[in-house]
Amino acid sequence: MEKILDIIEAIAHEKNISKENAIEAFKEALINTAKKLTTRESTFEALIDMDTRNYSIYKVITVVADNDKRLEELADSFMAISEAKEYDPEIELDDELRSEFILEDYGRTAAANLFRELEYHIQRRIEQDLFEKYRAMVGTVMIGTVNRIDENENTFVEIGELKGILSQRNRIKGEKFKRGDAIKALLRFVSIDPEFGMFLELTRTSPKFLEALMSKEVPEIEDGAVEIVSAARIPGERAKIALKSDQMNIDPIGAAVGVKGIRINAVSEELNNENIDCIEYSPIPEIFITRALSPAITQNIKIEVGKKALINITGDQKAKAIGKSGINIRLASMLTGYTIELKDVEGVTDRTGESSGNESTPEKTTDTTALADLFK
After folding, report:
1. Closest CA to 310 of 295, 325, 293
2. What predicted TM-score, i.e. pTM, was given to this entire model?
3. Is residue 375 included in any domain, yes or no?
4. What are the pLDDT digits (tens) for 2-53?
5. CATH for 300
6. What is the Cα–Cα distance from 153 to 161, expressed in whole angstroms?
7. Per the CB 3.0–4.6 Å rule, which of 80, 202, 278, 279 could disulfide with 185?
8. Which candidate, 232, 165, 244, 154, places its Cα nearest to that of 197?
9. Does residue 194 have a cis peptide bond before it, meaning omega lies within 30 degrees of 0?
10. Are 320 and 295 in contact (CB under 8 A)?
11. What was the pLDDT predicted at 48?
């Protein structure tokens, strides 16, 4: 077994894991093999000398007080101090006695056990590396190929070394996929399941997916010149996204929409033609909520305790504020974080946002005396 370290490094290269992880797996395999050949209660330590390319295994026994309960439960790992002093009168409590354990003395049994243990721990390291790799990618857009669709409408997607699962509830309503389709989805989290093993849970319905697509499509968002403050979606129907920019020369709405709507349309097509409203964020709640309720024009707004907004609105604008099946007011509430309550007021709101009711129209003046001084 002298050249086994060379084999370990070759395995690390083949399995695409770090040499350090492969060495740690080898140490664990040595310790577990030694325990299998002795007792599970024994304590072992494995040392690797990379200069000489050799390894050593030591059985470790800790010196404890004569009345320590561990002497009965773990007799192979602990020794009473009275007994230890028979070997070395200067020994003290918590000192450790080490004796080398020669694995080769156990022949083929040791080799077979070591092989199985090494295979197991290398596989665990591979899975751990994969888990950490994809966990760092949570919240990003993944691109994969549909492999199959089961009877529960779960869509299985091949992504790199792992499989992704796009469940029916995480799919936009009306979407249909078939085997071989290339799809984009947001990585929600990495899971380990007894049935599926390690897999990636994907979603196309999260507002974060909209934000990620916008970041990919709009360079100003990717660069940080434009910031996405919040987003709200009714997947497949409509979405609202609040944007802001601290740079005076950048219009966040214009940047997001693009020339002739090319940027926003590309995102909409990816979301099954979902309508996307871009709204300029304001730190003033009244202004932000008013913008979020567009295309409806409101009269005035009052912010109450508990993040509640009471809005006066004329009858002709109420339907616009609520939207089809209440979609507009729901999105506005999700986007701003406020509970929105509408209160009817009399009058009609014209295109300039001014309410007209029973008020009389002011008469136009024909007196030009105020301008006389300009022509002297």
Report:
1. 293
2. 0.72
3. no
4. 467 777 888 888 888 888 888 888 899 999 999 999 888 889 999 988 777 7
5. 3.30.300.20
6. 23
7. 202
8. 165
9. no
10. yes
11. 86
**Which tokens belong to 104?**
């080769």
* 272 vs 98: CA distance, rounded Å: 68
Using the 3D structure, point to which of 161, 186, 203 is the last residue of a domain. Answer: 203
Q: Sorting pLDDT into bands at 50, 70 and 90, what band is 373?
A: low
Report residue 165 as tokens: 């699962």
Task: Give me the domain span that covers residue 177.
Answer: 143-203
Two tokens, residue 34: 């030694």
3-class secondary structure, 305? coil
**Average pLDDT estimate for 331-350:** 86
Name the domain boundary from 180, 203, 226.
203
The sign of the CA dihedral 148, 150, 153, 157 is negative
Query: Measuring CA to CA, which residue among 348, 356, 230, 352 is closest to residue 288?
Result: 230
Please tell me the total count of domains within the chain. Answer: 4
> Does residue 125 share a domain with residue 23?
yes
- On whether residue 365 sits in a domain, the answer given is no
Structure tokens at 61: 């026994």
Is there a single domain that holds both residue 190 and residue 214? no
Measured CA to CA, the distance from residue 319 to residue 349 in angstroms comes to 13
Q: What are the beta bridge partners of residue 242? A: 230, 279
Separation of CA 172 from chain center: 19
User: Residue 316 carries which side chain, given as an amino acid letter?
Assistant: D
- Residue 343 contacts by C-beta under 8 Å, 6 or more apart in sequence? 310, 311, 312, 313
